[in-house]
Write a structure and sequence with these properties.
Length: about 210
């Protein structure tokens, strides 16, 4: 008769759990790594809404850095934990965007730019990495459509002489063809107009005198 052999009980596997201090240390290290990393990557597109106002809207767009000629610094802004700079954008095609917001890649960049001089070139070392840049185009409530349309509107409003010249286009073209209008200043040359009228009057009197004879 075969005796039954009792099989020893197998102990369940176990693992050593990290202590509370270890967990806290790891969490703190992860937080530090995130702060030292790119700040822009942790910012959602909805953060642009923090800069919305009653008379201002901010719309996020992506543009290629190759299209940008120059960025002129205006001011650094910190709002609801989001660090941005307001700049004026000069494009390579000659257009100009008066106000745009750019998120800073790192938090410490805000402290460096707090006392930066207004109107100076915004250094590329503070630009976001990559071939494209996300901007928040500042638009007033009265301007709608794409930001290209907005820039056209702003350029036209800053060019008052040309706008005034187009207002009475027919008459100004007519007098301009006679050399009686300064097209650049959109002003009538009154001396030339007076001499022109006198010349017509003299010609009319001569023709009238000849016909009468």
């Amino acid at each position: 008769m075969v005796e039954r052999i009792n099989k020893p009980e197998t102990q369940p596997p176990y693992r050593v759990l990290p202590t509370k201090e270890t967990k806290d240390g790891q969490s703190q290290k992860q937080d530090e790594d995130q702060e030292d990393g790119s700040f822009q990557s942790s910012v959602a597109s909805s953060d642009w809404e923090k800069f919305q106002g009653s008379t201002m809207t901010v719309r996020a767009v992506k543009v290629s850095k190759q299209r940008i000629k120059l960025l002129l610094f205006k001011r650094a802004i910190l709002k609801s934990g989001v660090c941005v700079v307001e700049v004026e954008v000069l494009w390579k095609d000659g257009r100009r965007t008066p106000s745009a917001l750019i998120m800073l890649p790192k938090r410490e960049d805000f402290m460096k730019l707090k006392s930066f001089t207004k109107g100076k070139m915004f250094p590329e070392i503070f630009w976001p990495q990559g071939s494209e840049m996300q901007m928040g185009i500042i638009e007033s409530g009265s301007i709608t459509g794409s930001w290209n349309v907005k820039e056209k509107a702003s350029n036209q409003t800053s060019d008052q002489p040309e706008k005034g010249f187009k207002k009475n286009n027919f008459f100004l073209k007519f007098f301009g063809a006679l050399g009686l209008v300064d097209k650049e200043k959109s002003k009538i040359k009154w001396f030339s107009l007076t001499m022109y009228v006198l010349g017509l009057f003299v010609i009319f009197m001569i023709v009238y005198y000849i016909i009468k004879i």
